[in-house]
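fold-stage: in
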Amino acid sequence: MTDKKEMNRYTWIDIRKQGIEVHFQPIYSIADKRVTALEALFRARDGQGGYLNPEEVVRDIEAEGRSYALDLWVIDQTCAYMQEFRKRGIKRVNVNLSPASFVSHRLAQKITYLMDEHEIPHHMLWLELTECGSDVDPNKIKQAMEELRDEGFMFSMDDFGKGESNFLRLLDYDFDVLKVDKEFVWSIEEKEKGKAALSCVIDFAKGQNMMVTAEGVETQAHVDFLKQAGVTNLQGYLISRPLEPKACMEFLEKYRNVDILQLP
């Protein structure tokens, strides 16, 4: 790959040559007491047997103006596995979409085409809106969301409590799920006001008939508090790290009818 220090970025062409993959992180349903969903996560190989920092890579691809190509690639790759996921009890898969992708031409038609090509019901794909910059027209995002919702897709607000993912976005857009950022979850053990602040957010979301997914769940203390607070789903290393497709299939087979949180 071209030296990042020389270019000060990763390019879409470079990372495709180096090797790109989609991994899946299990999401636990508190009501069902098992894993019922996944989040698709982009990964780029570093050429040395490991992976590049995904946040840095995504940031640079967005700066290059190629986030639309990346997002559609992830959706296409995800669709290729979704029939097998369904057989293993998965009800939905979440995929990130950048604001730039939301305002791209014919987004709804292209996503619908990919889903139909793989014969996947539209309700199985939930789209997570990542942080919105000031240069993105919110009206265009709303229009794209309306077009996608008409096709049966659902929406999550990603990384609430981080960056620009705040209450103003909740007022601007119609989300089905609020995803609480891991650092917000961790604050319940690290900051005096963490529990009170998170409880307020969860109560607000529930009042708007939104489901709540908590990211960064790593301890039993997290689980106990989040259950009591009324969170719908849990995601984090206590459930599972992100897995390569084959490993994810094996995980789902092993724990399909198991409450993973009750294991010793």
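fold-stage: in (second)
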Amino acid sequence: MFNTIKCDLTNAMKEKDKFKLDCIRMLKSSLQMEEINLKHELTDDEVLAVIKREVKKRNSSIEEYKKYGKDDVVASLQKEIDILSVYLPEELSDDELMKIIEETIKQEEATSIKEMGKVVKTIGNNYGAQVDMAKVSRIVKEKLS
């Protein structure tokens, strides 16, 4: 995964696509910082976690900039999200997510809100980058309440 990003970086340089180049450079920098923090080469799952974190940061920034009417910055951030999303696996549909949550609740034999953590953790471990964990958490909370 990290090698793919490096190749895309050189391709963006060759294509002289400054915006894409800057975005991939920011991503590469974040990945290198994570490597330094963890003191080992990143696995694909760790790379995906970093990319997902970067997308999440941009999504929260978009919300803030929308409040203040900064449409040009919102468009720029959305373009960055589109570039970063290329590296993320396809997210599961709502129907698939509901099915997984219901199966996991049965599997973990969760009956109360106290067991929510177990269910969310299991889904996170099994599906990681394919699901939005905030959404999972919200749905599990509704199901167990």
